[in-house]
Amino acid sequence: ACRAAPPQSGGLGAPAPPRAMDIHRRYSGGHLAPQPPIGGRKSSKTGEIGGRLDEKRDSLYGSPGLSAAQGPHDDDSWKFCVVLGAQWGDEGKGKLVDILAQDVQVCARFNGGANAGHTLIVDERKYAFHLLPCGIINKSCKNLIGNGVACHLPTLMKELEQLKEFDPRAIERVFISTRTHLLIDSHQLIDGIVEAEASSNSIGTTKRGIGPCYSSKSIRNGLRFCDLLHFDTFEARLRELIGWSQKRFGEESEADQPSQKHLRKCLREYNTKCAFDPENGAKGGVSSVEEELERYRGYAQLLRHQIVDSVTFIHEEIMRGNRVLVEGANAALLDIDFGTYPFVTSSNTTIGGVCTGLGVPPKVIDSIVGVVKAYTTRVGNGPFPAELQNERQDLPDFPGEYIGQPVTLERKGDPRGPFKLATGDVVKVGEMMQEVGHEYGTTTGRRRRCGWLDIPLVKYSAMVNGFTSISITKLDVLTGLRQIRVAVAYRNVDMTEVRLPSGYFPSHLEDLRKVVCEYETFEGWTEDISKCKSYAELPANAKRYVERIGELVGVPVSSVGMGPDRNDLLIL
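User: That's the sequence. What structure does it adopt?
Assistant: Structure tokens below.
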């Protein structure tokens, strides 16, 4: 990815490649004067730097700004609210959904599988969900796993097990669509086999079997939850699916890596215990096809009353006037159609996926909240225009002055010891985001790549999804930086005198790699904002940052998050 060259002061970092440019402006509040095109060029489509596109956006999404926020928090009129990630995932959707779920009757998942992860902290207890909707924490809320989800039942049952102390009858509030596809262990083995291939197109999958499950769905040899209700035919179909997998992926080749050979052997023998934990076989799985059949026979008995026709189920709830909250897995830039293909997930993560993943028409959706982290992160491979630091922490990074209070954070298993910040330090900003923001994946445990907030990316997401408001999360992570930068526009490295159109996001990876960012610079703050109880208590510079995001994206801000707890969210 092309990154702006860091300044040479401070002794940290190194210049980015010569073609990468550092185009930035300083923002100190109020509105910036219109910026004429460098070199006097105009575009017949966008007028002066995308002006006409912005005017159209205002008519589609409402005027930008903070005061016009029409979020779901203070408006009792909404009945069907969708919460979606606006970036590459890990934005903190779970906490917002958890808060909204306290006042709804139904909470639903419409896409993805156990490749998603939400971590909720309620009453100082941590809950990690990969399949369960966050509404499970509300004991009066029904939770629906829609037909667009790829559901690995052993994972779902483990999540329900961890809730036994909180709510022994939680399973009675979980409903699964008859049309939801079953993700079985062989899908996970295939995922690992394919990902292990030495290829430049390795996408950094979570190896949870999501792609192979959706492949089974598309080639029409998959199994659905309705099949569990007809177990006499389910047995034969499960054997057929496993046999198909063994025939196509079980045989070794000379080019196989050791990990592939091991997984292929486990697939041939259908010993997934050995695949998941070669040493002890203690991380789940089964040792034979017969054991797999018995496991699903038990699931069929246990869940027979929880498997429902989801179209009838959700439409009855809508007709009763009940509130429905829908949470998205992954995020817009991981969408199979609109994301950074092929470095994407295997489902539609954007607003259209809600309709196809739950069986509801667009007209019932009256609130769409885009969740935007105050900076940008992503997991896995693929271009990242505003990136500062990667998973291996071996990029030059951006040197910034830290002016906040001293901080010491433990890094378990890291030979470098604790991460420390001292007032006056010159810090690597991307590394600081990773450590202060605890940017490690809920599902994978991998360190997330971090960079400045990317407004063109968020504007593109807003165009695709039609956000009615945005929720900004993890603002507290930026506390202590003297200056904070925001990517406000894209330019092409071969023609930097012209901005790319407002809301445009390259569809080809090579075009995205040629993107350079234009930045605005904001003054930071030193105050501990995690203690703020209202938006008015935020430092002036923090408020300027939030309000400018709303202006740049063209969508009102409805809430701001400043910590991991469910109470660390300011409703605007």
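The radius of gyration is 24 Å.
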